[in-house]
## 1
Amino acid sequence: MKWALNLGRVAGIKILVHWTFLFLIGWIVFTEMGRGSDLATTLLSVGFVLTIFLCVVLHELGHSLTAQKYGINTKSITLLPIGGVASLERMPESPKQELLIAIAGPAVNVVIAFILWLVLPPLTQIPDEAFFARVTPANFFYLLFFVNLMLVVFNAIPAFPMDGGRVLRALLAFKLGRVRATQIAANLGQILAILFIFMGFFSNPFLILIGVFVFFGAYTENMMVQHLDFLRGHLVREGMMTNYVTLTPENTVRDALEKLLMGSEHEFIVELDGNVVGTLTRSQLIQAVKEDKTNTPVAEIMSRDFETFDVKDKLSQAYTALQKTRSPLYPVLENGRLAGVINTDNINEFIMIKSALVH
Ligand SMILES: [Zn+2]
């Protein structure tokens, strides 16, 4: 995620704060000022929110460290005004692992709430509205206890891809398999997301943001799982393009521009006697034109650092790689020599044809 402040690493995981987080702090300061609060009260409110987000980081670490036990690393944990996101490098395929990883987050908040309950003196009376209205040094940790309980309750809502939704998918997957389970969980997630958005207009506007986040999250992850299912059992050879334009290292930027204008390719493979020596994207070409290098051989501006696939590799592997790196295309080799190219458009077409055949 762009525009994030790096707070450092915990257990090797980068902790990032998204810049929109400043809005949340600004909003709190603004609200306190509107109430005519003094500096100490305002700082206490800000401190309270930061403490909540410390609990959120611990919650996300609960997910990440459990995932690590199954060999799944976490790239980063990002704090947004609506909560935290742990970016796991992949989702576990086994329902049991997904179930435990999903539960581990809210379990951390249960532990925090339990510790607070143990150490805090019991309340002498049932808290009224005024008790919850503002943070004071006297109620700080009691409020923190209630917030942790709320985090548990909120995350239990089965709105995929929120924790409760992941638990639901894992449970369904035991019986129905991952593909069908994801479909059901994502549909329910989207219905609940619309409900969040609707409720957000009448209560907390943060619900609108969470609703939008859940809606698109459910859509994207469901698509991904359904697509990977269509690709199952197919090889890169079946989805690759064999009819494409290549360049040689001596071709100039001008030659490449001509080919760019003539054909539909946006990226090129640079080949020498059947061996791939580099790749060249449209933006690299445009950059070269800006630098007045139209007569320069493409060998000087191409990327020499590129990944390749073999015709016998799984198509699903290429799909995942293309999604992750946003690399526009990969050369496909057979016995070490260029046999074709593969990009996201190719694979999407392959999926469209497969799904048309199924229905
Ligand atoms: Zn969570």
Note: The first strand starts at residue 4 and ends at 10.
## 2
Amino acid sequence: MDQKVSVDLSGAPQTMLATLYLKALDADFARPILGDRYAKEAAARLDYDFTDIGITAKWAPLITVRTAQYDIWARQFLAVHPRCTVIHLGCGMDSRVFRLDPGPDVRWYDVDYPEVIALRQQVFGSRPGYQLLPASATDMSWLDQIPADGPALLLAEGISMYLTADEGAALLSRFVDRFGSGELQIDFYSRLAIRSQKGHTLVRRTGSKLFWGVDSPQDVLDRVPGIRLLIAVTLFDASTFRGAPRGFRMAGRLSRIAPPLRRTLQYHRYAFGPVS
Ligand SMILES: C[S@@+](CC[C@H](N)C(=O)[O-])C[C@H]1O[C@@H](n2cnc3c(N)ncnc32)[C@H](O)[C@@H]1O
């Protein structure tokens, strides 16, 4: 059996242990939403007590609904653009490149802080067309390392809230300018969620800080020139939410009378460049 890999993370990088763990737990459910066996194997490789971050199985749908929704959208992009570049920003330990198994003409980059990438290297294998980029999203020189030919997908799941609004908007604008055509698939917390961050167990346990809150796609459209909205859904409207357990579905129904609660977690998808 492979030796366990030790983990020493704090702040925003540590939060990806929670998303990994919840995906790993989901993989063992009788009715998984994501069913990510890679997450299960990766979590088992880590020498880490996941109970330290205060996350339990009942919260798994909060992550797996989102990840499964972005898998669907990313697959759709890959089907239309079999020759493209995918930049998976704030990848954490997510195994999307293995789940989606893109074709030979796709260049795929997983980008995260160096300590996260170092952990990935010890746990996941490599594959053709796949590269790891250790970098902070806000130091955008990493973008210059990626050839800017052909359409590009920026997939940024669970990272926008760790950036300030100015950092996030600058990054999205730079991406759009550099690649000229493609999509941004990115999720947001609402402003209310950002304001109430002291109540988030994960934020408290990791010592991370949340900044950028968005209440509607218009907030993003106003800041990032050249993009157009394809679709925006909340956790409760995502197609993958149908698989959530009863308690979540009841919360979804109740949230219809409380729009600020309904929009706490939002998944956005934008296009840029020529309309095809
Ligand atoms: C909540 S985790 C999400 C991980 C993964 N996307 C998922 O859904 O499982 C947030 C991730 O964003 C990364 N992150 C936050 N701020 C970042 C930054 N400025 N540059 C690079 N990565 C960042 C963290 O290191 C962490 O891996």
Note: The pocket of S-adenosylmethionine is lined by residues 12-13, 15-16, 19, 67, 90-92, 94, 112-113, 116, 136-138, 157-159, 162 (CB under 6 Å).
